[in-house]
Amino acid sequence: MKKYLYIGLGLLVVGLGALGVVVPGLPTTPFVLLASWLFYRSSPRLQQWLLASWLGKYIRNYQRRGGMTPAQKAGAVGIMTTMVLLSAFVFIPAGSIVRVIVLVAGAMGALTVLFFVPNAKNDDL
């Protein structure tokens, strides 16, 4: 039962990670890393599929470096902030609850990258 729960959750977070590539404020790396962990615990075949997919580069970079460099974090947060603010204040009407949701999701994504994704061991990578 636990195996199937992990597989289902893994597939869900792979989808969230893939969405994070294009949706402002939704991080990619934490979701892809969580999916890798879930697949490692439940399905080696799905973990190999994830590593071989286009999302696998996030896992390989993270494993090789042990995290993200401060410059990568700053770049990711800068792009996320730009896209969130553009989305919230240009494309979403004032007074909409969707604007609040986008701003909160963006803040959560930025905080995740800044405080929960470890710094890379070597800045020169």
Describe the overall structure.
Helix 2 packs across helix 4 (56-65). With 125 residues, this protein is an all-alpha fold. It has helices at residues 2-20, 29-42, 44-52, 56-65, 70-91, 97-115. The chain contains six helices and no strands.
Task: Describe the structure in brief.
The protein has 6 helices and no strands.
Which secondary-structure class do the elements indicate?
mainly alpha
Number of strands: 0
Span between N and C termini?
A: 41 Å
- Low-pLDDT residue spans: none
Quick one: overall form?
A: globular
Q: Give, in order, the helices and strands.
A: HHHHHH
User: In angstroms, what is the radius of gyration?
Assistant: 16 Å
Number of helices: 6
Helical content class: over 70%
Largest sheet: none
Share of residues in strands? under 5%
Give the averaged pLDDT, no decimals.
86
Defining key terms:
74% helix; 125 residues; 6 helices; mainly alpha
Give the helix/strand layout.
Layout: H1 2-20, H2 29-42, H3 44-52, H4 56-65, H5 70-91, H6 97-115
